[in-house]
Design goal:
The protein has 167 residues and is an alpha+beta fold. It is 53% helix and 19% strand. The chain starts with a strand and ends with a helix.
C-alpha cells in the first residue's frame, strides 16, 4: 500500500479549508484517510501562525515509514524543517511562448516601419516645397477648366434626357 501525505479540501464554496491527511494514494481526495496530521487555511495571511498547523511528531513518523508528501505538502514540510525539499530548476520558465514571440516580432516590425516613416517625414519638407510650385503652375489650368465647365454641364443634361426616353 502506497501512503501519501496530501491535502483534503473542506470548507464552503469560495472559502477553502484544507486538512493535511495521511491516506492510501488510491483513495479519493476527500475520501477515507488514515490520519489527520494538520490543517491549512489559505485565507489567512502568509505570516499568520494559524495558516499552517502540523502535528510534527506524527508527520515525522509517517515520513519515516515511507509516506510520500504531495508537492504542496512537501513545501509545508520544508518550511517547518521536517523534510528538505529538493530545489527544482526550470530554465524554460521565463522563456516566452510561441504566441508571445510572434506578438513581439509584430511589434518590432511596426516600430521599424514607424521609424522609417518618421525619417521620411523628416526629409519630406524639402520634397513638399516642390508640390507648392506645381500648384501655382496648375492654377491657370484650373481657369481653363472653369471655362470648359458649361460644356460639361450640358452633357449630364443630355444623359438625363436619354434616361427619360428609356424609362
Amino acid at each position: 500500500m502506497a501512503v501519501a501525505i496530501r491535502l483534503s479540501r473542506g470548507g464552503a464554496k469560495k472559502r477553502p479549508y484544507y486538512r493535511i491527511i495521511v491516506s492510501d494514494s488510491r483513495s479519493s481526495r476527500d475520501g477515507k484517510y488514515l490520519e489527520q496530521v494538520g490543517t491549512y487555511n489559505p485565507l489567512l495571511a502568509k505570516d499568520d501562525p494559524a495558516r499552517i498547523k502540523l502535528n510534527e511528531d506524527r508527520v515525522r513518523y509517517w515520513v519515516g515509514v515511507g509516506a510520500q508528501p504531495s508537492d504542496r505538502v512537501a513545501r509545508f514540510l520544508d518550511a517547518a524543517g521536517i523534510k528538505e525539499r529538493p530545489a527544482r530548476s526550470n530554465p524554460n520558465k521565463a522563456v516566452p511562448g510561441d504566441k508571445a514571440k510572434e506578438r513581439a516580432e509584430e511589434r518590432a516590425t511596426k516600430l521599424a516601419e514607424a521609424e522609417e516613416a518618421a525619417k521620411v517625414a523628416a526629409e519630406a519638407p524639402a520634397v513638399e516645397e516642390a508640390p507648392a510650385e506645381e500648384v501655382a503652375v496648375e492654377a491657370p489650368a484650373a481657369e481653363e477648366a472653369a471655362t470648359e465647365a458649361p460644356a460639361a454641364e450640358e452633357a449630364p443634361a443630355a444623359d438625363a434626357a436619354e434616361e427619360k426616353a428609356e424609362g
